[in-house]
Design brief:
It is built from 12 helices and no strands. It is mostly helical and 309 residues long. It has one domain.
Length: 309
């Protein structure tokens, strides 16, 4: 279905708002529910939504054997592992700062793709990666860091690991030759991820202890329906009508919204180091995206189901 440019950009703006606002929503959620169970609630809700969509479309059929490796990779790493890492980090690092660190995932795809796919590291890509790394260092504030506070260091490490995990699965997606449409594979990825999270939740955190307040219901619905199911679906619609580079450049506004919304909703401080890190990370991602456009290889990895988070 061909959509007009105003409609496409309105949808793109909607996705940016949904994903950006999701950071303070996630931070609110982990104050009420343990991280793994919070992830299980989010992914489980998204599973119900995407299964309903697949049944309505008549596409609820098992993925071909050829696609099983990518389905497992997405479920285990992109969905389950990244979700646990991010929710665990949000207990230690402010939501706005977390949104910027996780957004560096598209930077880490560059060296990973160079190693495993043989993609060439151009000067522009080195520049983009360097800008992003300096941005992360600025966020970490090593010059004023309290080294006795191990929690903050662990939180940042978890976020960087989440970004690198996102990047690694993105490279796997880039290398995989799909025989099933991404939307059709989502119910299976989400179902597998939910199963993993539930098992992990019982093993690590024990039986869930959840006080179902109206606020928590809204948090779970927002994450499962809006930030996971609907945001992914809308992104696929956008990609059919707009180039991947243009879409990804616009989506760089997500961490900006994450920082601003966290400051407004959670009263988080917007420090000079946070602004500097945000600017450097955005510049790094932009340089890489424009480098890909110059080489006529538009990236698609930034738009897989979960830039999660």
């Amino acid at each position: 279905m061909k959509l007009s440019r105003p409609v496409i950009y309105a949808l793109l703006g909607l996705v940016v708002l949904i994903l950006g606002l999701n950071w303070p929503v996630m931070a609110t959620g982990v104050k009420s529910v343990a991280p793994i169970w919070m992830g299980a609630l989010r992914i489980g809700t998204a599973t119900l939504f995407m299964v309903a969509v697949a049944v309505a479309r008549g596409t609820m059929s098992p993925p071909p054997r050829r696609d099983l490796p990518i389905v497992v990779s997405m479920a285990l790493f992109r969905l389950a592992a990244v979700t646990v890492l991010v929710f665990s980090a949000l207990e230690l690092v402010p939501a706005g700062r977390s949104s910027v660190v996780v957004w560096t995932s598209s930077l880490w795809t560059v060296p990973i793709a160079a190693i495993f796919l043989g993609e060439r590291m151009t000067r522009a890509r080195w520049l983009g990666l360097s800008l992003g790394i300096v941005g992360v260092l600025a966020l970490f504030e090593p010059w004023g860091f309290d080294w006795s506070d191990s929690g903050v260091a662990i939180g940042h490490a978890l976020l960087v690991l989440a970004a690198i995990t996102n990047a690694a699965t993105a490279v796997h997606i880039r290398a995989h030759r799909w025989t099933i449409a991404p939307l059709d594979s989502m119910p299976w990825q989400l179902t597998a991820a939910t199963t993993i999270l539930v098992i992990l939740g019982f093993a690590v955190e024990g039986p869930p202890v959840i006080d179902w307040t109206p606020q928590l219901v809204l948090v779970v619905l927002y994450q499962g329906l809006l930030a996971t199911g609907i945001a992914f679906w809308v992104q696929l619609v956008i990609l059919r009508n707009l180039s991947a580079v243009s879409t990804n450049l616009t989506l760089m506004a997500v961490p900006v919204v994450g920082v601003v919304s966290s400051a407004l909703i959670l009263d988080e401080d917007v420090t000079t180091s946070l602004l500097l890190g945000l600017i450097l990370v955005i510049l790094g991602v932009a340089v890489n995206l424009l480098s890909d456009r110059a080489s006529k290889k538009e990236p698609t990895d930034v738009l897989d189901p979960q830039e999660v988070v």
